[in-house]
Amino acid sequence: MNIFLREMKAFRKSLIIWSIGMLFLVGSGMAKYAGLATSGQSMNEIWSAMPKSLQAIMGTGALDISKVSGYFGVLYIYLVLMATIHAVMLGATIIAKEERDKTAEFLFVKPVSRMSIISAKLLVAVANIVSLNIVTGVSSIYLVGKYSEGESVNAHIAIAMTAMLILQLLFLFIGSAIASVSKKPKLAASISTGILLITYILSIVIDLNEKLSFMEYLSPFKYFEAKIMMNGGGVDSKFIVLSLISIVILLMITFVFYRRKDLKI
After folding, report:
1. Cα–Cα distance between 196 and 76 in angstroms, integer?
2. How far apart are CA 24 and CA 30, in angstroms?
3. How far is it, in rounded angstroms, from Cα 44 to Cα 63?
4. 41 by DSSP, 3-state: which?
5. Cβ atoms within 10 A of the Cβ of 217, count?
6. pLDDT of residue 176
7. What is the dihedral of CA 31, 34, 40, 44, to 10 degrees?
8. Residue 197 burial by Cβ neighbours in a 10 Å radius (0-12, 13-18, 19+)
9. How many Å apart are CA 156 and CA 154, to the nearest integer?
10. d(CA 194, CA 162)
11. What is the C-alpha separation between 113 and 170, in angstroms, rounded?
């Protein structure tokens, strides 16, 4: 039994649906930009008239949304939110589903070690999020390029997609670690998604109150901000290092607790 191929087949439909969703989000977002750009109204004036709290939620910040790069920066926030929700749910589900679906007994009677099983599952999860990231990146470069009017955006989008992949990996392993530690597999996805939403809300609260900026380390959504990346600021190396360290720690937790887990079969 090839666990990798079995799991890839099991999550094939889900990947297709999420990919279509990302394509739709990018396509509809850029279509909205095209409509606003030809309306004769100043998009910056429209957004600046909104309450500061709404601006923080929608992610306008310091972005010049009259430019396609600035507008994509706003859209990018929602792309990241969707991608990380997919990642955290995938990480939790791919670990917990054997107990949830009562198929652990079938899996663990096979002459395969738990290390091999968990490794194959995590490789499948990584393959899925990388595939979703590629679909999002390619569609973004193509569709944003159609409205760029000579503005150079490909490099910014490439940096943004790399940052999104790091966040996807981070939340993937948050989900897998929680599923490995949790004694209630049915709750793993809910707990993981709850953590994601709390950190996202925290990022908005920090934007609304600069005095809370010291808490940015608690929210991965503050590590790679569109308003910095799309303005040519790149990414802060300290957040890359922090993310990678967190990924390694979460991966270790997943392996250690999965090996010791008392599976309910």
Report:
1. 17
2. 10
3. 9
4. coil
5. 12
6. 93
7. 90
8. middle
9. 5
10. 24
11. 25
> How crowded is residue 122: how many other Cβ atoms within 10 Å of its Cβ?
21
Taking only the tens place, the pLDDT of each residue in 2-28 is 878 888 998 999 999 999 999 999 999
Distance separating alpha carbons of residues 88 and 96, to the nearest angstrom: 12
42 against 88, higher pLDDT:
88
In 3D space, the residue among 18, 185, 176 whose CA is nearest the CA of residue 97 turns out to be 185
Q: How do residues 117-172 score in pLDDT, each as one tens digit?
A: 888 899 999 999 999 999 999 999 998 888 777 778 888 899 999 999 999 999 99
Residues written for the chain: 265
Instruction: Tell me which long-range contacts 39-48 makes (C-beta under 8 A, separation of at least 24).
Output: 42/66, 43/71
Can you list the alpha helix ranges (DSSP code H) found in 49-67? 52-58
Rounded-to-integer distance, Cα 212 and Cα 130, Å: 33
Question: Is 98 in contact with 92 (CB distance < 8 Å)?
Answer: no
